[in-house]
Design a protein that fits this description.
This is DUF1059 domain-containing protein. The chain is of the alpha+beta class. The chain contains one helix and three strands. The protein has one domain (2-41). 29% of the residues lie in helices and 22% in strands. A three-stranded antiparallel β-sheet has the order 2-1-3, covered by helices on one side. Strand 1 and strand 2 (11-13) form a beta hairpin. The longest helix has 15 residues, at 20-34. The protein is elongated and about 50 Å long. The N and C termini lie far apart (27 Å).
């Protein structure tokens, strides 16, 4: 999951091991603090390698 602000450079993502819940909490905190609009998109699922 990738969330980003439409009005400034703020962004958060699950790509670095952060959970979806943590990313959502950070997005809500950013909105409450700034009033900025947040948008999101799903990241592609991880690739699973088979031996």
């Amino acid at each position: 999951m990738y969330k980003y602000c439409l009005e400034c450079d703020w962004q958060a993502s699950t790509a670095g091991g952060t959970t979806e819940e943590e990313v959502s909490e950070r997005a809500i905190e950013h909105f409450v603090e700034t009033g900025h609009t947040i948008d999101s998109m799903r990241l592609p699922p991880p690739v699973i390698l088979e031996n």
